[in-house]
Write a structure and sequence with these properties.
Blueprint lengths: L7 E3 L2 E3 L7 E2 L3 H8 L9 H6 L6 E7 L6 H11 L5 E7 L2 H7 L7 H9 L6 E3 L8 H6 L4 E5 L13 H5 L3 E4 L7 H10 L1 H10 L11 H53 L4 H17 L10 H10 L4 H29 L1
Helix pairs in contact: 9-10
């Protein structure tokens, strides 16, 4: 008996996260669930949709599910939520059938089984699922409805493998998830093959495990070394560029500082201008005579200076001129007097 799938209660609400993977159809848990189903009471589509079904509605979907991705999970979510109280069974084809119908898979059957059974929407897994469903298979697993996308699934045969299911009224449709598929994922891997092989060789995976020849392995090794050299060269160039930007930034900051200091020293409002103006004021004060007690200004001082007596040498010059004039007048008088005599 495998581990049971449970509900856990968190903060008074029901958390529906599962604590164990989905059961295989041959497990005790799956058989117990199947035995509880009264398949003699068939459920029609109206009952299932309205929620009036007297038991769980058993929905079946199938596929390969190679490289299990979110598109597969969304398919299961759609199928699980088609009806209230649904029980989802997923059938997975084995390797032999898959390889004969669709070709080589990336994952083997056991890996595909395990990938799908760990999806939370899945209740039960059927191994070795058939390519086409018959009445016996439907009764064995007590399947009420089969879910798949609406497009005919022919795989090259020209006949829809779900045609008879649709005719029986047991088919319900889901929608494909655009933008993702197993084929797309494989195409991405093929497109970047060299990158992935080189990465795995670097991680120590033997080339034989990847079916890589000796020459190709050496080619990938050289490519990785060239790539490494390119990255180192780019790193060196980036560091040089960072240093260059740093030097230019420092020079710009220093030049702004020098210009500011120059203006503070030599500018119109700089320190030298202030010192010069202070010096001129001191020289003027030193050369100018002291002001009068009455507080006269320089204009009054200038006026008083212009109105003051002439200097001494000017007075002497004027006295001599006066004496010379007096002497001339005396001599002239004597001459006049003598003639008169």
């Amino acid at each position: 008996m495998g581990p049971k799938r449970k509900h856990s209660e968190i903060n008074g609400s029901i958390d529906h996260a599962l604590v164990a993977p989905a059961a295989f159809s041959d497990s005790y848990e799956a058989k117990l669930e199947r035995d509880k189903c009264d398949y003699s009471r068939r459920i029609n589509l109206d009952e299932a949709r309205s929620g009036r079904a007297p038991r769980k509605v058993r929905i079946y979907t199938d596929g390969i599910y190679d490289l299990f991705h979110f598109g597969h999970a969304k398919e299961f979510l759609q199928a699980k939520t088609l009806f209230p109280n649904a029980y989802l069974i997923v059938g997975i084809c084995n390797d032999d059938l898959t390889h004969s119908k669709k070709g080589l898979t990336v994952m083997n059957e056991d890996e595909r089984y395990e990938a799908v059974r760990h999806c939370r929407y899945v209740d039960e897994i059927v191994k070795d699922a058939p390519w086409s469903l018959d009445e016996e298979y439907l009764r064995k697993h007590k399947i009420d409805f089969v879910a798949h996308d609406e497009l005919p699934y022919t795989t090259g045969s020209g006949q829809d493998v779900y045609a008879h299911i649709k005719a029986m009224g047991m088919f319900v449709s889901t929608e494909r998830t655009e933008g993702v598929s197993t084929s797309d994922l494989i195409a991405r891997i093929v497109k970047n093959y060299d990158e992935y092989v080189g990465r795995n060789l670097q991680r120590g995976m033997p080339r034989e495990e990847m079916n890589v020849s000796y020459l190709n392995a050496k080619k990938f090794e050289i490519q990785e070394k060239v790539k490494e050299l390119k990255e180192k060269g780019k790193s060196v160039i980036d560091r040089i560029d960072e240093r260059r930007h740093g030097i230019v930034e420092k020079w710009e900051n220093r030049s702004r500082e020098l210009i500011l200091n120059f203006l503070q020293l030599f500018g119109r409002e700089g320190r030298l201008s202030s010192i010069w103006n202070e010096g001129k004021d001191r020289i003027k004060n030193a050369l100018s005579p002291p002001g009068s007690p009455g507080g006269s200004n320089h204009e009054d001082d200038f006026r008083s200076e212009t109105e003051s007596p002439l200097p001494k040498r000017h007075r002497i010059f004027e006295e001599e001129q006066q004496e010379f004039s007096d002497d001339e007048d005396g001599e002239a008088l004597k001459i006049v007097n003598g003639k008169a005599d």
